[in-house]
Amino acid sequence: MHPIRNNTMSHIELNDKKIQILNVAERLFSEKGFEGTSIRDISKEAKINIAMVSYYFGSKERLLEALIFHKTVDLKLQLENLLQEDLEPLEKVNKLIEIYINRICLNKGIYRVLHFELYNKKREKSLQAFTELKKGNLKSVESIIKQGQALGVFRKDVNIQLITPTIIGTFFHFHMNRSFFEEIFDLKTEEMFNNYIKNDLTKHIQQTIKALLVYEN
Amino acid sequence: MHPIRNNTMSHIELNDKKIQILNVAERLFSEKGFEGTSIRDISKEAKINIAMVSYYFGSKERLLEALIFHKTVDLKLQLENLLQEDLEPLEKVNKLIEIYINRICLNKGIYRVLHFELYNKKREKSLQAFTELKKGNLKSVESIIKQGQALGVFRKDVNIQLITPTIIGTFFHFHMNRSFFEEIFDLKTEEMFNNYIKNDLTKHIQQTIKALLVYEN
DNA sequence: GTTTAAATTAAACAAGTGTTTAATTTTGCA
DNA sequence: TGCAAAATTAAACACTTGTTTAATTTAAAC
């Protein structure tokens, strides 16, 4: 009768209505935080009954788990594909940066949620899945850089594990202080803001990482 | 009778009990978020009556405002002092990075709160104060870099406004994914974690910014 | 010691929370 | 068409939320 009681998260099937709920939840969680968003908010915007969230996902907590799972499954693949491509090391790194920015741009909401709601260690389950994802990503980045080092293009005294923080961190900080940068760069429209990211911010990050990787004392 | 009704935030005097409340609030807001922290949580940990928060600060919202104001007033000065120091451009930049990291380390809590709770634009008042703070900081950074450019030490095609996001963003991303980095770097104790920041992470950021600023094609 | 204001308290307030229930409607299949 | 499972609903549940009230205690000034 009840579709998911005593079920594990990864086996929940996603019909249209569930995906609709997840999308609304993503936006609201990202805008107002997990605690700041009520199930009534979600059901109102998704135009469903309050009970449907519990009916479909079991609880608000498990809705969050389902959301994180749903939005991160395909991220891993994209980086692994990049590994196989036949590109020069620096081109690969630049493409890596573009992929990161693009991915996070497309999923702004969930990344905000991931960072904010997984910071306190209580949500063990979601956190573990997220950690595994990051480990996989780090491996991909590692082998791209080591390829460049083996070819003598990249210097070897860089802290590879800290390159991702610089890429994502720069982008994220820009995003988290959006209204500030909108003001100082005079980015009046959504389009102008996105264009700034696509051109200037991406270029800055690529320039930074390139300098770090190829600069000789 | 009531000490603060119809009063503006900046004029609230801070006695010991208020500061105690602010400190507890900072920790809890940072751990569980603004919405995730109840006044009862705060009053319990601060060992005061629930009504005292409203009595002292007027409301939970104004408690947050007071917290932000209280914790950011002296940040501006530190950067302005650095400007006056007689150092080589690169030394100045390195010291700038150390100041940033140190400041945020000392005030981890409030910076988390600032980023998370000020992201949605509803809290106009606190947001504006924060924006002014960032503008001032940017000015300091700008003139440090321009000094280096005038001396011919730094290249001129860097996006100065995006340097702070790289510094703070890298550090913040590291902090927000603390448990992940604790795992991959095997940082078992608080001390080891702080040492990693003080040595490796700081070095990485300094190395990155140096490369960006002095690298020639 | 009395008085007056401030500090502190327990209790109550209305509103909002996540979740469950039980009844009803819709759906898919025989 | 009939029937059983699934989907959907409104209502109620117990609980927590931020805030206010009114009473009491503490502190300071005269």
Characterization of the model:
2 copies of one chain form a homodimer. With 217 residues, chain A is mainly α. Chain A folds into 2 domains: 9-70, Orthogonal Bundle (Arc Repressor Mutant, subunit A), CATH 1.10.10; 74-214, Tetracycline Repressor, domain 2 (Orthogonal Bundle), CATH 1.10.357.10. Chain A has helices at 16-32, 39-45, 51-57, 60-72, 75-84, 89-106, 108-117, 124-150, 163-176, 178-184, 190-214. Chain A starts with 15 loop residues before the first helix and ends with a helix. Residues 1-12 of chain A have low confidence and may be disordered. Chains A and B meet through helix 7, helix 8, helix 9, helix 10 and helix 11 of A and helix 7, helix 8, helix 9, helix 10 and helix 11 of B. Chain A binds a DNA duplex (30 and 30 nucleotides) through helix 3.
- Poorly predicted spans of chain A: 1-12
Number of strands of chain A: 0
The biggest sheet of chain A amounts to: none
What class would the helix/strand composition of chain A place it in? Answer: mainly alpha
Please report the two chains with the greatest interface, counting residues with C-beta closer than 8 angstroms to the partner's C-beta. A-B, 52 and 52 residues
Order of helices and strands of chain A: HHHHHHHHHHH
Cα-based radius of gyration of chain A, to the nearest Å:
20 Å
Number of helices of chain A: 11
Overall form of chain A: globular
Summed up, the domain count of chain A is 2
> How helical, in percent, are the residues of chain A?
over 70%
Instruction: Quote the beta fraction of chain A.
Output: under 5%
